[in-house]
TrEMBL record:
Residues the UniProt record annotates as site (Important for substrate specificity): G250
Record carries keyword Magnesium: yes
PANTHER family: ATP-DEPENDENT 6-PHOSPHOFRUCTOKINASE 1
Record family assignment: Belongs to the phosphofructokinase type A (PFKA) family. PPi-dependent PFK group II subfamily. Atypical ATP-dependent clade 'X' sub-subfamily.
Residue numbers binding Mg(2+): D249
The keyword Transferase appears for this protein: yes
Catalytic activity as recorded in UniProt: beta-D-fructose 6-phosphate + ATP = beta-D-fructose 1,6-bisphosphate + ADP + H(+)
Family annotation (SUPFAM superfamilies): Phosphofructokinase (SSF53784)
Name recorded for this polypeptide: ATP-dependent 6-phosphofructokinase
E.C. no: 2.7.1.11
Cofactor: Mg(2+)
GO cellular component: cytoplasm
Compartments (UniProt record): Cytoplasm
């Protein structure tokens, strides 16, 4: 029997205990949402299988404070559901989906998405591990909660530019018009402040027909200007009942607050978000739209730097790319071009002078090849700049200093003054060029899927959600999951190891860091090879036998607890499961076998890959135990 897991309320999201599977605690989620308990079986009741519920509980702590909707099932299944209009408006009528009479979709078998369909966040799991977190699958439903004639939709774009913005606008308008027969769609001019400070733009398929061929956004955009009360007043006064908000993490936070206020007022208004960031730093989703286009365009700058550098003696091409906190554009453009000798990103610190520093590596590459190409993300090396900027833009983002110019000058000074070595450095900054272009074919298709998914969700009565691609499937994700953290490059992951293998660059770790990492690896080796350690310490084979007997006794002693643990895991009560897990570990702290048996598998795999990638970064020979684990 599936159940709703109602977390205990606290004003601090970090104390909400609903987050227990491979996710970080939210620090940015605003806790002023409201849920009321009602019975409804239309929007997410299934046929009795999966996670379908005949009664859906919309959670409240009695003070109108929203709590995430968590549905649990067997084998550790967890659905992080999105809000629905019937959570606070229980008597809404439903209508047949107009798509069932649409000739374009008559040939599609099982076009409507089943209410029990969900998409797992982690597609690779161990056979004995819980199924993990899922999100509701996006797509059209058989019943909708808006009549086509009553829909009055609006679209707003906020934040920086990104390839694909116009495509998303176009597909929302065309999706509403052609799939659902909606005739009234407004464009909000100039971002959030356009709700109350500017005129609106009537949108129709004719108006947006070819805007996908242009960069930027026809609606205009801005940072800041978010006044929740004025925005919702404007929505209410204009009779708008569907709001589509396109923007990055800051914009989605604003969308979440708008949803909260709309819910507090009890308005029948669906709020849908489409995540946008050129940096690809939005969590949960596979990637953000415009990222592929940005990487493709960034290669043009890298190719130019490569041509410039190899055409002259001791030529250096330095390219600065976008990436305030995440180096995905720099990393993927480097991997795609194959012409880069060094890639510097915010997640991987580096230093300039001394043994193992950047200058030493540049000198080495110039002597070997006579030229080199360096790619640096705009957020990399900010700690090297003498004057740290404290200024912020209208969105609250820190204004970064130009690290590209700084590194360029430092390289010139080092080789001219210290090495007396002539170099020719060309600095290329395509930062804003790569985001002001139309989206490529891949991003155009992706934008279409995102836009249509958002339209399907709003028409089906879902609200307070972001549409996003998770493991290749379109999903509806609660706002708080999108805004709680940032997606960053993991430098102990295989993708970063692939980059190091491609560029042959060092890790730029100093001697102390390398020694520290060596000690960490040695500790892991010692912990994972207790039998070998006993022999190294001069102990006889009897000690090993005695240790094995001790482990066996401990396992028997913990038998009852482990049975409870397995049972608890099968019922999906993860909080109880972790409490029992803690009891098992407390009783068997010296037994590594139990720890390995019940430790969440992701930690085990991360530890092994951390050792492997760290060894690669630090040029440390891979320990034999890592290979043995790989064979297993």
């Amino acid at each position: 029997m599936d159940s709703i897991l109602c977390p205990k309320y606290s004003s601090s999201v970090s104390s909400l205990n609903y987050r227990f599977l491979e996710t970080s605690t939210s620090t940015n989620f605003s806790s002023s949402l409201s849920f009321t308990c009602h019975n409804n079986s239309n929007h997410n009741s299934g046929s009795g299988s999966g996670f379908g519920l005949s009664t859906t509980a919309a959670m409240s702590n009695g003070n109108g404070i929203y709590k995430p909707k968590i549905v649990t099932g067997e084998y550790g299944y967890v659905l992080e559901d999105v809000p629905h209009l019937t959570d606070y408006l229980p008597d809404l009528p439903t209508y047949p989906n107009p798509l069932q009479d649409n000739p374009a979709y008559s040939v599609v078998k099982q076009y409507f998405v089943h209410t029990d369909d969900s998409v797992p966040q982690k597609i690779v799991v161990h056979k004995d591990s819980p199924r993990g977190i899922h999100f509701r699958r996006a797509g059209p439903r058989q019943k909708v909660y808006f009549d086509s004639d009553e829909v009055h939709a609006c679209i707003v774009t906020c934040g920086g530019l990104c390839p694909g913005l116009n495509t998303v606008i176009r597909e929302i308008v065309c999706g509403l018009y052609h799939m659902y027969g909606v005739k009234r769609v407004l464009g909000i001019d100039g971002g959030y402040k356009g709700f109350y400070a500017r005129n609106t733009i009537p949108l129709s398929p004719k108006v947006v027909n070819d805007i996908h061929k242009r960069g930027g956004t026809i609606l205009g955009t801005s940072r800041g200007g978010h006044d929740t009360s004025k925005i919702v007043d404007s929505i209410q006064d204009r009779g708008i009942n569907q709001v589509y908000i396109i923007g990055g993490d800051g914009t989605q936070k604003g969308a979440s607050v708008i949803f909260e206020e709309i819910r507090r007022r009890g308005l029948k208004v669906a709020v849908a978000g489409i995540p946008k960031t050129i940096d690809n730093d939005i969590p949960v989703i596979d990637k953000s739209f415009g990222f592929d286009t940005a990487v493709e365009e960034a290669q043009r700058a890298i190719n130019a730097a490569h041509v410039e550098s190899e055409s002259i003696e001791n030529g250096i091409g330095l390219v600065k790319l976008m990436g305030r906190y995440s180096g995905f554009i720099a990393m993927y453009a480097t991997l795609a071009s194959r012409d880069v000798d060094c890639c510097l990103i915010p997640e991987s610190p580096f230093y300039l002078e001394g043994e193992g520093g950047l200058f030493e590596y540049i000198e080495k590459r110039l002597k070997e090849n006579g030229h080199m190409v360096i790619v640096i993300a705009e957020g990399a090396g900010q700690e090297l700049l003498s004057q740290q900027s404290t200024l912020q833009d209208a969105s609250g983002n820190k204004l970064l200093q130009d690290v590209g110019l700084y590194i360029s000058q430092r390289i010139k000074d080092f080789f001219s003054k210290q090495k007396k070595m002539p170099i020719n450095l060309k600095y290329i900054d395509p930062t804003y060029m790569i985001r002001a272009i139309p989206s490529n074919a891949s991003d155009n298709v992706y934008c279409t899927l995102l836009a249509q998914s958002a339209v399907h969700g709003a028409m089906a009565g879902y609200t307070g959600f972001t549409s996003g691609l998770v493991n290749g499937r379109q999903t509806y994700i609660p706002f708080y999951r999108i805004t709680e953290s940032q997606n960053k490059v993991v430098i102990t992951d295989r993708m970063w190891a692939r980059l190091l293998s491609s560029t042959n660059q060092p890790s730029f770790l100093c001697k102390d860091d390398i020694e520290e990492k060596k000690e960490e690896i040695a500790k892991v080796v010692k912990a994972e090879q207790p039998e070998k350690q006993l022999m190294d310490d001069g102990n006889c084979a009897d000690d090993i036998v005695a240790k094995k007997e001790s482990e066996t006794q401990t396992l028997k002693k913990c038998g009852s607890d482990t049975q409870k643990l397995k049972k608890s895991g099968s019922e999906g009560h993860e909080l109880e499961r972790h409490e029992l897990y803690a009891q098992v570990l407390k009783r068997s702290a010296s037994d590594s076998r139990i720890v390995e048996e019940w430790k969440p598998r992701k930690h085990t795999y991360k530890k092994r890959w951390f050792n492997f990638n760290l060894a690669l970064c630090c040029h440390i020979p891979v320990q034999r135990h890592a290979c043995e684990h790989s064979k297993k």
